């Protein structure tokens, strides 16, 4: 009984290897991966399949020198996210140089608060502009001296 079961398993294993060889022969060595709406439509049709098979059917695989098929899941996931409109690298348009304004200041050891030139340029301030300091509970208001109040006008 056990010997018969082992023979059946060996036959099944041989058949699955034969099927793999047949599939490897029918696989395009240079697949064109689906992108955009075509990829999303194919995903809906293959929703019941395993993710590796889905990625392979969508063209995200490569064939090695010895004929083995390797599924590129990372590229597949990136393409799915791009098709859904999710930015993968949101900061890629910047050149990577310089600092980003944080809109925070800190008190220095000498007790001074310094506001950086980025902020003063954005507010249109010039050297010599004066401010009146009004302290509140957990906040500070800086009111520019010599400028009419917008609310009163």
Automatic annotation (TrEMBL):
GO (cellular component) term, any one: protein-DNA complex
SpoVT-AbrB domain segment(s): 102-147
Recorded superkingdom: Bacteria
Alphabetized UniProt keyword annotations: DNA-binding
Keyword DNA-binding: yes
Gene Ontology molecular functions: DNA-binding transcription repressor activity; transcription cis-regulatory region binding
Gene3D superfamilies noted in UniProt: 2.10.260.10
Name of this chain's protein: SpoVT-AbrB domain-containing protein
């Amino acid at each position: 009984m056990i010997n018969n079961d082992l023979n059946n398993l060996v036959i099944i294993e041989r058949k699955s290897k034969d099927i793999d060889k047949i599939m490897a022969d029918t696989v395009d060595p240079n697949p064109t991966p689906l992108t955009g709406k075509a990829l999303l439509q194919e995903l809906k049709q293959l929703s019941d399949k395993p993710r590796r098979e889905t990625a392979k059917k969508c063209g995200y695989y490569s064939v090695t020198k010895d004929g083995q098929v390797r599924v590129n899941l990372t590229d597949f996931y990136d393409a799915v996210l791009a098709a859904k409109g999710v930015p993968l690298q949101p900061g890629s348009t910047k050149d990577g140089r310089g600092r980003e304004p944080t809109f925070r200041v800190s008190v220095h050891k000498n007790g001074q608060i310094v506001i950086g030139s980025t902020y003063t340029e954005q507010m249109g301030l010039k050297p010599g502009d004066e401010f009146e300091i009004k302290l509140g509970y957990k906040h500070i208001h800086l009111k520019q001296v010599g400028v009419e109040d917008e609310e009163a006008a």
